[in-house]
Write a structure and sequence with these properties.
The chain has 207 residues and is mainly alpha-helical. Helices cover 84% and strands 0% of the residues.
Length: 207
């Protein structure tokens, strides 16, 4: 590989890394805002319920349904967070499968994994952040559902809400694994490309 081609690849890699880091910063800000917003809103509504309990009872316990606001907001925050995670993973996979192999070929006597390839190794895998994020959403949902199911006099409506919230949490958990499914699809795709390339080379040599 000539020097100007290597410079183009390094420049492309640098710009993608900048975009990746920017997406990580935005995702971190969204997570921080979610934690602050959800916990503060739960605390405010809980304090209101405790201070105006008699007034709440007069309104047929409808005040309890305000606890659904932080639970539902937490779910939609999660979808936004997962979209940034998907974008980050997409950039990383492109670097790993397209840019790094070309750069590695240009580096003589370098037999170690480049950074993105190293990050994708199984021993680097951890799901603590996703578990903590989904855990906060689950806590917000439980805080909303317990008083609604136990104390609300609108029983059928409460049951419907409980099933809807539990269904959304299931969708949330499925969306959380979208990055993992993307990795498998990308690995399979590029592995198929390699096999097709090898097959074409064998056919050309045979002819």
């Amino acid at each position: 590989m000539e020097n100007h081609e290597r410079e183009i690849l390094w420049g492309y890699l640098t710009e993608l890394r900048k975009e990746l880091v920017e997406s990580q910063k935005i995702r971190t800000q969204v997570i921080g805002f979610k934690i602050t917003f959800v916990t503060a809103l739960i605390a405010f509504i809980a304090a209101k319920l405790l201070s105006d309990y008699e007034k709440v009872a007069e309104f047929n316990n409808l005040y309890y349904y305000l606890l659904l606001i932080p639970a539902v907001a937490s779910l939609f925050f999660d979808f936004l967070i997962y979209s940034y995670s998907f974008s980050i993973k997409r950039i990383g996979l492109y670097i790993k499968h397209v840019l790094e192999p070309k750069l590695k070929d240009s580096l003589k006597d370098f037999n170690q994994a480049l950074w993105q390839e190293y990050l994708e190794q199984p021993f680097n895998s951890q799901k603590l952040a996703n578990t903590g994020n989904l855990g906060l959403t689950a806590v917000a949902a439980v805080i909303a559902l317990i008083p609604i199911v136990l104390f609300s006099t609108i029983i059928y409506f409460s049951i419907i809400i409980a099933f809807v919230i539990l269904g959304l949490i299931g969708v949330d958990a499925y969306a959380m694994n979208s990055s993992g499914r993307l990795i498998k699809k990308a690995d399979d795709h590029f592995e198929n490309l390699k096999q097709n390339k090898k097959g074409n080379e064998r056919n050309e040599n045979a002819t």
